[in-house]
Design brief:
Four copies of one chain form a homotetramer. By secondary structure, chain A is an all-alpha fold. Helix content of chain A is about 75%, strand content about 0%. Chain A has two domains: about 1-60, Homeodomain-like (Arc Repressor Mutant, subunit A, Orthogonal Bundle), CATH 1.10.10; about 70-200, Tetracycline Repressor, domain 2 (Orthogonal Bundle). Chain A contains ten helices and no strands. In chain A, helix 1 (about 1-30) packs across helix 2. The model of chain A is unreliable at about 205-213 (pLDDT under 50). Chains in contact: A-B, C-D. At the A-B interface, helix 1, helix 6, helix 7, helix 8 and helix 9 of A face helix 6, helix 7, helix 8, helix 9 and helix 10 of B. Chain B binds a DNA duplex through helix 1 and helix 3.
Amino acid sequence: MTQDLHEQMKIRRTEILAAALEVFDAHGFGHTTMDMVAAKAGIAKGSLYNYFSNKQDLFCQAFTETLSGDEADADAMIAQDRPAFEKLEWMMDRWFSRFGHFQKIGRLILEVMATAARDEQSPLSPVLQTMYAGWRQRLTMIVEQGKATGEFQDHAEPTVAASLIMGVLDGVVIQAILKVGVQVDAEFLDALKRGVLAGLTAATAPGTGGSQS
Amino acid sequence: MTQDLHEQMKIRRTEILAAALEVFDAHGFGHTTMDMVAAKAGIAKGSLYNYFSNKQDLFCQAFTETLSGDEADADAMIAQDRPAFEKLEWMMDRWFSRFGHFQKIGRLILEVMATAARDEQSPLSPVLQTMYAGWRQRLTMIVEQGKATGEFQDHAEPTVAASLIMGVLDGVVIQAILKVGVQVDAEFLDALKRGVLAGLTAATAPGTGGSQS
Amino acid sequence: MTQDLHEQMKIRRTEILAAALEVFDAHGFGHTTMDMVAAKAGIAKGSLYNYFSNKQDLFCQAFTETLSGDEADADAMIAQDRPAFEKLEWMMDRWFSRFGHFQKIGRLILEVMATAARDEQSPLSPVLQTMYAGWRQRLTMIVEQGKATGEFQDHAEPTVAASLIMGVLDGVVIQAILKVGVQVDAEFLDALKRGVLAGLTAATAPGTGGSQS
Amino acid sequence: MTQDLHEQMKIRRTEILAAALEVFDAHGFGHTTMDMVAAKAGIAKGSLYNYFSNKQDLFCQAFTETLSGDEADADAMIAQDRPAFEKLEWMMDRWFSRFGHFQKIGRLILEVMATAARDEQSPLSPVLQTMYAGWRQRLTMIVEQGKATGEFQDHAEPTVAASLIMGVLDGVVIQAILKVGVQVDAEFLDALKRGVLAGLTAATAPGTGGSQS
DNA sequence: AATGAATGAGTATTCATTCAT
DNA sequence: CATGAATGAATACTCATTCAT
């Protein structure tokens, strides 16, 4: 019975989080009221406080939950014995396959970023920190492998390369969210992959500061 | 005399905008009160409404003003008869020289993006749209020139390449703002330039397109 | 239990309306603050909004409630088989018995009239319209009966007579509210009744219609 | 020159009052701003305070001015040697000829009444008091004359009769302003006159309290 | 645990009035 | 006298949170 009760609450909690995510995404933190969330979740406003201590907490948990996708697949892939080249492609394909979701929660991410950027004490900060650290580490490992096997050129400092790759992915998502012109489709993805890989594999990085001629 | 008055008001307006920018950036739109802005600007709360019709308007103008840097230099440079390669480098150098400012107002930019992403009717949307359109056009022109002169490889679709370049710059700024590990210094910039240019000039992008097989 | 709650809220609502009526009457709509009403009702300011959506709504409901006296007695009386003469007297006696209340809320009525006169879209307009329409109809019926039975002379167009009777009652209330001299007592009422009835029963109105010549 | 200046100001003052009357009537005291009045009068907001000490004062003077029509004609007429009967008719005709104006400023009058009723210290109170006192006196004199000459029956106490006559006129104006159904035209006026005169001249006031049968 | 009525701190905005020019 | 920018008091309304039932 107690078990049932716990199950019940767990389910209810999940329902609330789903409702909260939807409402927060649609209206933003500031314009979302607890009434809205309660209404969407189909429970009384006061009941929310049996599951979450306050609005901040609810927002934070809802965001964390939706972001913490299963990253096990990526780790498993990296552990495999495959060319760094292929691994990087796989990562970008994976990112692309999630593009729709990113766009969906992109507004929320932007808001979270703005909040985290403003207040480092925010409970949201570690969430972003962890996520970025994880992906940077994975990308760094891939680049390192590539350099070790000679697939990638030596001019690429792995952590910097990882940052750039993450940067371009973030940047593209932002342009898509803001609808400032970019059309993200298979062709775009292909160009993106080619560009990134070309930057890493280019036989000779063109001498900066001088023309090629 | 009337001239003096107009001058006075123009100066006052600028002071208010500076104060507003600072406070908005520090606390975000929602947590900034008109009292705060008035106090920072050293005038009475009610006086704000002699210059701006409401809080939204004040925010929008403050943001627009700070973003609309003089882009004449970029256009002048593009018009010159120089290799695309050099032009692109110049652009990235220029971006880097403004990096400090971007970081300073980055939190504000994120908030504006979140707002614009949520409400396309927001007066902030066109500001972002215009800015992105302008820079995309400039970058596209450079890439086109590069392809025409043979500096850049043919696999780079100019508008896509422009998006990618802008994306990586945006993404890097975000990582810097969020302090998620990247250290943006001269060395980083160099790697960034090399990476971007390598992506454009690489003789042949390694066998992408069949990667999934 | 739920029943109790509903009862509780009904009672609370009535208390608020009573408090609101008092404060609105004393200070007028514009000079009454929600704080005043809340204080008088003994609840928190915010709680008012659990019962009324805004100040206008509160005002409108308070006014409507106090005006919508039970008019069933008048209708019942009219339905009886009695001389029109007696019915009209009864009506005026009834009005007189309510004179104290009219005087009490008279300032409010004047303000409502001013509002309704300025804005026909005001929710107060229909309240007045309905009230006037009801009483005009009742008076018209009485005059019609009086003409049919020969009690009243034929020169009295029923709807016009009804308007005049209502007008004199309104006018007297206004003079009483403004304290511009009239002393409304039993003697005055008697004169009023005599005057009205005389106007209806007078055998022949003295040569009006040629007066201008 | 000083004379000219005085003239100038007098003219300006009159213009302001006209503008104020229009705006106050259209929007009511509470919703009229000094800016509106200044704009309508074509001068600067601050200049209003060179002519009137504050908003209240401006309102009061504007209202007083529009109400204080020339009453000399009425007094002259009363002084003539004519039947009371004719005089009373003349008075009602005069009232009717001004009906349009009453309707026009009626909303303002209602608001003034509401204000005066609420605050006897209001400078508006004496304005109304004086106006009512004047007309009551004139009507009382006419009724007294009529009784003395035998035109009117003895049952009419002059001051009470005067109040009733004024009341019906006020009441009719109110109904017209509120647009609650009455159609005030020549026919209506005729009925009104007949009714009033009948009430005064009726050979025998019907025994109150008993039916005629 | 669930409910939802009660709470009251928090704030954008208005506008009569002043006063330096 | 004319002007209109500056002032700041005044106030309706929201909404996260609490707590009695």
